[in-house]
Write a structure and sequence with these properties.
The chain has 455 residues and is of the alpha+beta class. It has 2 domains: 64-156, Immunoglobulin-like (Sandwich); 165-450, Purple Acid Phosphatase, chain A, domain 2. The protein contains 7 helices and 23 strands. The relative contact order is 0.13. Bound molecules: fe (ii) ion. The site of fe (ii) ion has 6 residues, from loops. Fe (ii) ion binds next to loops.
Amino acid sequence: MYKRRIEFSTMQKNRYSHIIPCTIRNRTGYSQTSNRVQWLIVPCLLLLFQFGVAADINGNDSGTEKYRLVWAKDPTTEATVAWNQKSGDPGVVHYGTKDFGRKHHLYPKSQKTHRTFRYTESINNCFASLSDLQPDTRYFFCIKDKQGVSRRLTFVTAPDKPIEFTFIAGGDSRNFREPRIHANQICTKLQPLFIAFTGDMINRDTEEEWTEWLEDWQQTIDSEGNIIPIVPHRGNHESRPESIYNYFDTPEDAYYHWAIGDDMFRYFTLNSQIPADGKQGKWLRSELKKYRKNTTHLVAGYHKPMRPHVSKKSEGDNPLLWADTFYQCGLDLAIESDSHVMKRTLPLKPDRNGTEGFSRSLNDKNATVYIGEGCWGAPLRAADDSKPWTIDAASFNGFDWILVTPDRIEVKTVMIQNPIHIKKIDPAKIFENPTLKLWEPKGGSVLIVPGDRQD
Ligand SMILES: [Fe+2]
């Protein structure tokens, strides 16, 4: 049996430094009297300092709100800060690797807004792209405008070396705000490196619904200002083709890819709302071919499943056009959404004589495991369309919690519940949280997808 070696990597230190307890040093050298005073004063000062800093980092007297951090380019060196400028001119992001709280003038670097998109009087999306960042490094930032300074936020860039990390994948948050907020709050407890959000953020693609969604997304930011990068995908409810681009500043067609840990992991965000063949299909084929030989884990995320596990859903004939490319290039894991159920499949290969165009293909380096199918607050549906190659499917609000290591991927599926009793992750055990409720499907709670490279 595989025995995991947990190393407290630099990334983990960076990512979890805010929850590692501090020790107070140098208590020697005081007289007895001053010692007594010290025991009174030091805790008081510490409390004051902590409250002061906490209050300070979360204060906001600027015209900015509804923050998100987007990974649509190289996440080891780039990140886009996005926000709503509710009044006044767009602010400027001040950032650096040292925490200066909201003292914007002390940060060594600044980045102006490179693009804005105003939908209405109350929605004015602003984007500032940070580049030349150091991999595997914690950054702090705040946004300064003419009115004041935003809260202080912090994030960690992705490592460029093969170090294990976790991410969350899920989608379909439209309709019900309570489970959506609970899911967002659970993310703060797990502190993944990023969240791959596989579409259908909203039900109707209106400013009112986006306003609510962005408001709820703030619940993925904890009280220490940790903002988890989002990797946005387009769903069918993003009915305006440009919505993802205009709310997150992704490429206009909302398909892109990037890598973490050099050759360890490459993630493809695909757009199932536009033709899967044509320009996008050609791009996918040529890019996957480029990386198939050297990449251990090739993963893709998109909204519409090829073969939904809900009978009333029509078959995904458009994304099905990717199946051959996935197989030829040895894509390891495909993350789907849209049906509002959760499912896992065996490793599959396209097969005209198989069930619905697929058959199981165990111990096949080219085969693909399919997971999903998205429910982060959307109306649940009956999981009534399992296939002979389905491991299991069920109907509940949940998301996939994924560990990526240099030799394999592990998937756990989190059942969304009120997070009040869920504890924050132990930095030494980034993929263990006994206070979480996990799905126990056939085959066990942990799905293992071995890593491989194509010869
Ligand atoms: Fe959908």
